[in-house]
Specification:
About 35% of the residues lie in helices and about 15% in strands. The chain has about 140 residues and is α+β, with helices and mostly antiparallel strands.
């Protein structure tokens, strides 16, 4: 008997398929592009840092992108964004240092919170303002 294409939904236990990071964000034939993800990260927190942009020098791929960030304290970092999360890979723009073993953070908020007290304050104030606005509306 000839094999036919397998529909993963027909498998008895589809759990392993979903947890495999290569397929987690798989929809149709579009594989998640980390550059798009990086742009979204930048747009989310740009208001709370001095400068932040996706690196045009370091290579972006489906599985990795690099983001340059300058905190309000004027500290510069190059961040690596992968499925594992975000981590600092250098203490300057457009650099990577293989000797640097920094932890991954699940979110950009968590990473910036650990790097920049000024970020924490600005982000917290913005959150309070949104909550106040919601309170007025209801």
């Amino acid at each position: 008997r000839m094999e036919t294409d397998c529909n993963p939904m027909e498998l008895p236990n589809n759990k392993g398929f979903e947890e495999d990071s290569d397929y987690r964000d798989f929809e149709g034939t579009d594989v998640k592009d980390m550059r798009l993800e990086a742009e979204a990260v930048v747009n989310d927190v740009l208001f709370a840092v001095s400068n932040m942009f996706v690196s045009k020098t370091l290579p972006c791929a489906e599985d990795v992108a690099y983001i340059n960030v300058e905190t309000r304290e004027r500290n510069r970092y190059c961040l690596e964004l992968t499925e594992a999360g975000l981590r600092v890979v250098a203490y300057d723009f457009d650099q990577t240092d293989d000797r640097l073993q920094t932890p991954y953070h699940e979110t950009v908020y968590s990473l910036l919170d650990s790097l920049s007290p000024a970020y924490r304050e600005v982000f917290g104030n913005a959150l309070l303002q949104r909550l106040e606005a919601l309170k007025k509306d209801s």
